[in-house]
């Protein structure tokens, strides 16, 4: 799959960063020393952590060279690590292991959470946010288009890219080791200029595996065109021409 496109991702930077701000606001720790931002992307979530805890040592980690290069360029005074979060093994435990909009790209969440929680210091937290399991109309439309006969044979992998479990699953995965768990969902109603903006939003994230699997540029353009038509039929314009894009997200904060 091609690398992430930082500029495309940050086209909706405000909307994508709000869940990080909301997650941070629910972390009840006054003076953490050491924080890791797993899947830090272009550093937007890391910057929110730094604003809340300016005295802490904060490191951003991401597996995308493009994202980490952008972080190093824009925030040269911080530590950035190019690595897979699944294999992360810090030299000492962290007070906050944080991850905003990342774990859905990684498999086997019970094992992943067990691994990461082992690196939370006593009194510290593991805090993460992912899209909620109840798939949106948009996700259903993507699957519908992926199931078109012309490319269905290429779509098995992309359809299985994402791992998103239920609140009950995450409770069971952490309840044995966490002293307290806060779990909640929020549905954001993003105001988009038009239906095409929803395509721009998803092209830089959830659509990437589907487009990467297609063999030609013509196929990719056709996939996006068909999806665009269905999105315009489903997400109708409001009286002022704008389009509401509901996006449900799941939050978990587990204290050690
Ligand atoms: C949707 S972005 C989230 C960026 C940022 N945390 C934010 O709040 O907007 C997902 C990021 O997770 C990274 N990512 C995905 N899988 C990863 C993995 N296994 N290890 C490290 N980073 C990963 C991607 O490279 C991408 O930068």
Automatic annotation (TrEMBL):
GO terms for molecular function: trans-aconitate 2-methyltransferase activity. Keywords: Methyltransferase, Transferase. It comes from the Bacteria. Gene3D superfamilies: S-adenosyl-L-methionine-dependent methyltransferases, Vaccinia Virus protein VP39. Residues 35-124 form the Methyltransferase domain. The keyword Lipid biosynthesis does not apply. InterPro entries: Methyltransf_25, SAM-dependent_MTases_sf, Trans_acon_MeTrfase_C. This is Trans-aconitate 2-methyltransferase. The gene is tam.
